[in-house]
Design goal:
TIM Barrel, single chain, 10-stranded mixed β-sheet, 15 helices, binds 2-acetamido-2-deoxy-beta-D-glucopyranose
């Protein structure tokens, strides 16, 4: 009786939690999440920083390198940091902390500090790099010891690596200064905040060296107890960027792109930026609170220089930032794991992204369809609903590629099942979508309903593949299906099992057009601490959840990708994730979670996407229209105009939102939305080219202004504009109501042309541009050539043989250049050479536009060319050309291809009324697969 009552009460409490999660429209419940002061290691860490600040020159932290231990061998400087502490009995204890400074081939330098623990003590988690890093961690031998006699006398080691780069290690203070050409760029432990909470036997006694022991051995928050069996094991270090006024990255936060100071003051935060993957329901904007994903990579930028650090730690992390007149000081604190910092010296943003990519990997080229438009809602009700929405796009002549199903397509939220009455024949539904080459995305989450007879649960339990509790039982918590267990995708056997669940015939029949969406993988646990799994839960290998928390979601995401690879080895997989970590860019795209249908969330989307873009994660998007609530019509239309440039472009809405298919907006809004989506499809060849570039050098798709205008200090904080891929298009989405004009900031001396109206804008600073409801403020930077496909088609695949238009915007000197990458868009053939890659160059020297292949010609490449040998360039638009260079009355241009030549007609519009000239070459009859030139 009593047990039944308890169960009923528990169920009611859980329902209340669930109702709150589903129904509320209030802002995020701050009290559901820890502040720094409520997280004992963060509280200790900040107190330590305050003590250092107060002590000033009298700060003498108990860490020093034992000079006798230091040696340089094959690109690695190693030795022992000794932490001198006084134990409970007042006896001095020297804790040995072996360190390494590893000079990597990529130019990055790794600073790693481990801990020599007694054999009987639990091991510190040391596998974060195994998941995050795909690059080579071996040292390069090209390190030169340039330590002078004076250095030696002063306890300094000086090592030269890279092009004029030096690392200076001060042994007594464990301070490492990274210099370029003699000037300090990054300093580790400048303020002496290095801290390693060393293992000690459990006991009440006083602290080591006066440490505050409150909550060291257990702590609780929100009524949830954390048993902390390993005791305190936090790590911390400070990182100073001398002379750098701005830092960026460390997504995910709903805040500005240029990160704020976090120690209070006007316009600053009081709390550090937090990295702890949580289902932050209805998050606030302008906040340093933790969100769904965590990438502990930070870029520092000043005019003419970029550097960065990567903190390879997957435990809860807090980062304090203080901007000063002489640079930016940061303080990194993690609850477990190692001090493992990678320093990258740029010297420019593009090189920095390459260095970071050389460590954590580059995104693979996604399937082309995934760059089209995605239509989602919670939920499309049944097969008829899906097919009616599908047909609606065609009826309204709006292109789209993918329709999505949220959790309610399943039977009782048991993944890998279908709600039979609503989706009796999913394979047939998918075959109907496939007729227009469209795809279906089904959601699959990591919580598995705990129900007798549900095969997935039973298999998982039997094989012990679920996340465990602190004492080794199966961990159960509450999520969408009710009581659930979580698949532990850190376990290789769990990944193998996961793959079996997706095999053809096992899920969605044998459909070939299946893609997947992984949600709730922070993991979200409705009744868990901070809405997630307990820190003392256990994963494969015996590791505590605490240490792997921020990377769990990535392992789940990756397991799903491996499963799709196994199901359809020929196809590129597409799996969207909500939780992420450094390295997730290798797996698939993410979106910024559950935003709201208000202008604030439209506004914050741009800086959020820029923040992840510079942290190696370029395939990102925000829910267009806003997930919660109902956008007013103007916001609805404006969001599509912004979304057309999001690398991942999806409309999505909550179950309680009104239906939101684009045609429901009514005119003029539907027309504006249609134009925005068609613009996206028009730019796909250029977007795909940008994704190709990202796949080998990590260049973001959305590029902050400093990438093209690195010397302009005033542009460093601008985060409501961006450059779109390689196109040179400078876009400023409108994020306020009632706008008819706006200022677009031109960041450099180049000439810019209104796109598409050709109004000339020249000169660094703000320029007033039209921005009425049907207009996206957009300027084409001189010097760029990009490609479009202008015909409306129902999906990306149906565009494969459409002709191309080249848009040439000449720079102030009359030149322009650009690239085009193409392949079949779906298979891995491009990795074997089946692709096309061309450069276009327009030269003012001879007035010639040239197309040249920059791809080795192989059997595979020639075979690919055959599949597109009917694709021609149907139009060339040249903007800003000096018409004085044409002959008087000239109406044709000469075209050369394959040793033949012919003339093509041009129409010429002279410069007038502040607009640049335009020449349109109509149907020059040149092929995209051929080398050709057009002489003006
Ligand atoms: C995903 O799994 C594959 C196969 O096990 C592995 O090679 C790859 O490194 C993993 N990627 C990530 C980001 O974990």
């Amino acid at each position: 009786m009593r047990a039944a009552l308890a169960a009923a009460i528990r169920a009611m409490a859980l329902l209340a939690v669930a109702a709150m999660l589903i129904g509320s429209t209030e802002a995020a419940k701050k009290y559901l999440f820890k502040t720094c002061a409520q997280s004992s290691f963060c509280r200790r860490g900040r107190a330590y920083a305050d003590a250092a600040e107060a002590a000033g020159a009298d700060w003498h932290p108990p860490y020093a390198v034992d000079p006798a231990s230091v040696q340089l061998r094959q690109g690695v400087l190693s030795g022992t940091v000794v932490k001198t502490a006084v134990d409970a009995d007042g006896a001095a204890v020297g804790v040995k902390l072996p360190f390494q400074l590893v000079f990597l081939e990529s130019g990055a330098v790794r600073f790693l500090i481990e801990e020599d623990r007694p054999k009987s003590a639990p091991k510190r988690y040391d596998e974060a790099v195994r998941w995050a890093i795909s690059g080579d961690l071996g040292a390069t031998a090209a390190v030169e010891d340039v330590t002078t006699a004076a250095d030696t006398a002063a306890g300094v080691r000086r090592l030269r690596f890279g092009p004029g780069w030096t690392a200076v290690v001060e042994l007594a203070t464990v301070r490492v200064t990274f210099e370029r050409d003699g000037a300090a760029q990054v300093v580790l432990n400048e303020r002496g905040l290095l801290a390693v909470e060393h293992w000690r036997p459990r006991g009440p006694g006083p602290a080591f060296g006066g440490e505050d022991t409150t909550d060291m051995w257990e702590e609780s928050f929100g009524g949830k107890q954390d048993s902390k069996p390993n005791g305190p094991e936090a790590v911390a270090v400070d990182v100073t960027f001398p002379g750098y006024g701005h830092v960026y990255g460390i997504p995910e936060h709903a805040d500005r792109f240029a990160l704020r100071s976090t120690r209070g003051g006007e316009g600053n935060h009081d709390e550090p930026y937090r990295l702890y993957n949580v289902d932050i329901f209805e998050y606030e904007v302008d906040s340093p609170m933790a969100m769904y994903g965590a990438i502990p990579f930070m870029q520092a930028q000043r005019a003419g220089s970029a550097v960065g650090v990567f903190w390879a730690n997957a435990a809860e992390t807090w980062i304090d930032i203080v901007h000063g007149a002489d640079g930016t000081r940061t303080h990194w604190l993690s609850e477990a794991g190692l001090v493992d910092v990678f320093v990258m010296l740029g010297p420019d943003a593009t090189s920095l992204y390459q260095q970071y990519g050389a460590l954590t990997g580059y995104a693979e080229l996604p399937p082309l369809y995934s760059l089209g438009y995605h239509q989602c809602r919670w939920n499309y009700q049944n097969e008829r609903d899906v097919l009616e929405v599908d047909a609606g796009f065609d009826r309204h002549e709006i292109p789209y590629d993918v329709i999505w199903l949220d959790i309610d397509y399943t039977d009782s939220r048991k993944y890998f099942t279908w709600e039979q009455s609503a989706f009796p024949t999913p394979e047939r539904m998918m075959a109907a979508l496939d007729e227009r080459r469209r795809k279906l995305v089904a959601i699959i989450d990591p919580h598995i309903k705990k129900e007798a007879g549900y095969g997935v649960y039973e298999d998982m339990t039997k094989a012990g593949l679920a996340v465990a509790t602190a004492d080794g039982g199966e961990y159960n918590g509450w999520c969408w299906p009710g009581e659930s267990a979580w698949i532990d995708t850190l376990a290789p056997a769990a990944v193998e099992y996961w793959k079996r669940l997706f095999r053809p015939g096992a899920f969605a029949g044998r459909a070939h057009n299946l893609a997947i969406w992984n949600d709730m993988n922070e993991p979200s646990v409705f009744d868990g601490p901070e809405g997630s799994a307990p820190r003392d839960a256990r994963h494969y290998g015996g590791w505590e959840h605490r240490a792997v928390h921020n990377l769990y979601g990535m392992t789940f995401h990756n397991a799903t990708v491996q499963a799709l690879n196994a199901r359809e080895p020929r196809q590129r997989p597409f799996v969207l994730t909500r939780a992420f970590f450094a390295g997730s860019q290798r797996v698939g795209p993410m979106w910024t979670g559950d935003n709201q249908a208000t202008w604030d969330y439209l506004r914050v989307a741009t800086p959020m996407l820029l923040s992840s873009s510079v942290a190696g994660y370029g395939f990102v998007g925000a829910d267009v229209g806003g997930f919660f609530g109902n956008p007013e019509h103007e916001l609805w239309a404006r969001w599509y105009q912004a979304g057309a440039f999001y690398p991942f472009f999806r409309g999505h809405a909550h179950i309680e939102s009104k239906r939101r298919e684009p045609w429901l907006a009514g005119e003029p809004y539907t027309g504006i939305i249609r134009d925005a989506i068609r613009l996206r499809y028009q730019l796909l060849p250029s977007l795909y080219t940008a994704f190709h570039r990202a796949s080998f050098d990590g260049s973001p798709i959305l590029r902050p202004l400093f990438m093209l205008a690195p010397a302009n200090d005033a542009a460093l904080a601008i985060d409501d504009q961006f450059f779109f891929g390689e196109t040179g298009l400078l876009v400023k989405p409108v994020v306020d109501p009632g706008v008819t004009e706006t200022d677009v900031y031109v960041p450099d001396d180049e000439v810019y042309y209104g796109y598409p109206d050709r109004t000339v804008y020249r000169g660094v600073g703000n320029h007033r541009v039209p921005a009425g409801l049907d207009t996206i403020p957009m300027l084409a930077r001189g010097g760029h050539i990009f490609t479009r496909r202008d015909r409306y088609r129902r999906s990306t695949a149906l565009m494969a043989h459409d002709p191309l238009t080249l848009v040439v915007s000449v720079d102030a000197a009359g030149n322009a250049g650009g690239a085009l990458y193409m392949d079949d868009g779906e298979t891995h053939g491009h990795t074997k050479g089946a692709y096309l890659h061309r450069f276009f160059m327009f030269s003012s020297q001879d007035n010639i536009l040239r197309s040249r292949s920059v791809r080795p010609s192989t059997a595979a490449s020639r075979a690919f060319d055959k599949t597109i040998d009917t694709v021609r360039v149907e139009r060339v638009i040249v903007v800003g050309f000096d018409l004085g260079r044409l002959k008087a009355g000239q109406t044709t241009v000469e075209t050369f291809q394959d040793k033949k030549s012919w003339s093509s007609h041009i129409s010429v519009t002279p410069a007038a009324d502040g607009r640049a000239s335009m020449i349109v070459v109509r149907d020059p009859k040149v092929l995209i697969t051929a080398d050709w030139s057009i002489e003006f």
